[in-house]
């Protein structure tokens, strides 16, 4: 049947594509600073990728016309996916081990940021491919929504996902703080005024981004307004334009200084207390500080973006940009080449901008002489 034909085509693509993506990321792991590469956690992550690569390569010469091969491939994908379930916290633990043992300099910081963006984006992409194949072709996995094509919803109701993510975050917030702000949702359909806003998207990805932003906004609002008789609502505006879908989340949680905005997207920086890997009862609104950088990667994966705009002393606007047209929503992937490997060289060029008033005495004397 046509389903079997699609499965053979998907098998032929994935047996080629997944090993390439795994091999590329293994090459980049080897370019990490030796001291980070040597941490037990990073070694464990590397061993998972090596094992999975070996298992996937075994299918390279096998026939797509053999039903047992197709069935074994699904089992292997599920095994690989389960093996890699804890990649994010384990890699995060490796970075913590490294930071605790060695002094981190700005160059290493930059290299680790560059690597983790690419590493986690690669992981998002491989999980997406494996999930699609298993959801479409594994009888045991076909329990999703009948409208969905694997994990993709061709008619994703954005407001519904906003409400789901808000309610989940609100429940956590109420458990932890015994109170939570309300939601004020506004929708503007610039393409079809008055119509419901739907796009082709992966609801779980959108939920992940929104849930993270709502957690941050709720935490900030409750803590900033702890002496107020009532909490300001979190205002969400969903706008569908000709090319873009934008979701703006506005809170009155006090904002953050401009100098800290980029740090919020850094894997080496977290405002929250450090979690213990074995502690399941940890504060639910905090973690490794990876929520924002990984949410931005989810947005960028299908050519979107996630930005923060903050007014210190007042509040923050977070905006998720997604492509309105499915034809524009194509994967954005890291490419391993010479340009990529150069990013791991441990040299940094001198800054070609300066702040004279913070410079040395000789610098100010030279300025005066001029």
Order of helices and strands: HHHHHHEHEEHEEHHEEHH
Poorly predicted runs? 279-286
Highest CATH level, the class of the largest domain: Alpha Beta
* Major sheet details: 5 strands, mixed
Span of the ends, CA to CA? 81 Å
Considering DSSP H and I runs of 4 or more, what fraction of the residues is helical? 40-55%
The CATH topology assignment of the largest domain is Heat Shock Protein 90
- Average pLDDT rating: 90
User: What is the CATH H-level superfamily of the largest domain?
Assistant: Histidine kinase-like ATPase, C-terminal domain
How many separate domains make up the residues?
2
Inertia-based shape: globular
Percent range for β-strand residues: 5-15%
Count of helical segments?
12
Integer-rounded radius of gyration: 23 Å
Total strand segments:
7
Class from helix and strand fractions: alpha+beta
Based on the coordinates given, report the CATH architecture of the largest domain.
2-Layer Sandwich
How are the strands of the largest sheet arranged? 2-4-5-7-6
Question: Can you lay out the helices and strands and say which pair or pack?
Answer:
Elements: H1 2-29, H2 34-37, H3 40-57, H4 67-83, H5 87-101, H6 106-137, E1 153-157, H7 158-177, E2 183-189, E3 198-201, H8 203-224, E4 234-240, E5 244-251, H9 258-261, H10 291-301, E6 305-311, E7 315-323, H11 338-342, H12 361-369
Parallel strand pairs: 2-4
Antiparallel strand pairs: 1-3, 4-5, 5-7, 6-7
Helix pairs in contact: 1-3, 1-6, 3-4, 3-5, 4-6, 6-10, 7-8, 8-10
């Amino acid at each position: 049947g046509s389903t079997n034909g699609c499965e053979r085509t998907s098998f032929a693509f994935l047996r080629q594509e997944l090993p390439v993506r795994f091999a590329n990321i293994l090459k980049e792991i080897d370019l990490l600073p030796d001291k980070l590469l040597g941490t037990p956690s990073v070694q464990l992550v590397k061993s998972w990728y090596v094992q999975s690569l070996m298992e996937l390569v075994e299918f390279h010469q096998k026939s797509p016309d053999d039903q047992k091969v197709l069935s074994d491939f699904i089992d292997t994908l599920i095994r690989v996916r389960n093996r890699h379930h804890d990649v994010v916290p384990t890699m995060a633990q490796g970075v913590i081990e490294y930071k605790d043992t060695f002094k981190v300099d700005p160059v290493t910081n930059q290299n680790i940021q560059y690597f983790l963006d690419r590493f986690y984006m690669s992981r998002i992409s491989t999980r997406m491919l494996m999930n699609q194949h298993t959801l479409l072709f594994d009888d045991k996995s076909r329990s999703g929504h009948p409208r969905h094509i694997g994990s993709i919803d061709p008619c994703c109701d954005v407001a519904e996902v906003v409400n789901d993510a808000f309610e989940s975050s609100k429940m956590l917030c109420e458990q932890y703080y015994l109170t939570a702000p309300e939601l004020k949702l506004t929708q503007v359909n610039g393409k079809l005024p008055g119509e419901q806003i739907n796009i082709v998207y992966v609801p779980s990805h959108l939920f992940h981004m929104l849930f993270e932003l709502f957690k941050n906004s709720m935490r900030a609002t409750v803590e900033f307004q702890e002496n107020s008789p009532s909490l300001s609502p979190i205002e969400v505006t969903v706008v569908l334009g000709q090319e873009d879908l934008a979701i703006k989340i506005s809170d009155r949680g006090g904002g953050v200084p401009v100098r800290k905005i980029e740090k919020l997207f850094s894997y080496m920086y977290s405002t929250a207390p450090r979690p213990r890997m074995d502690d399941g009862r940890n504060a639910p609104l905090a973690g490794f500080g990876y929520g924002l950088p990984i949410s931005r990667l989810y947005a960028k994966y299908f050519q979107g973006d996630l930005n923060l705009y903050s007014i210190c002393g007042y509040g923050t606007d977070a905006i998720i940009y997604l492509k309105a047209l499915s034809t524009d929503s194509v994967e954005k992937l890291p490419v391993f080449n010479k340009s990529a490997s150069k990013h791991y060289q441990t040299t940094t060029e001198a800054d070609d901008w300066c702040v004279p008033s913070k410079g040395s005495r000789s610098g100010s004397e030279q300025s005066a002489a001029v």
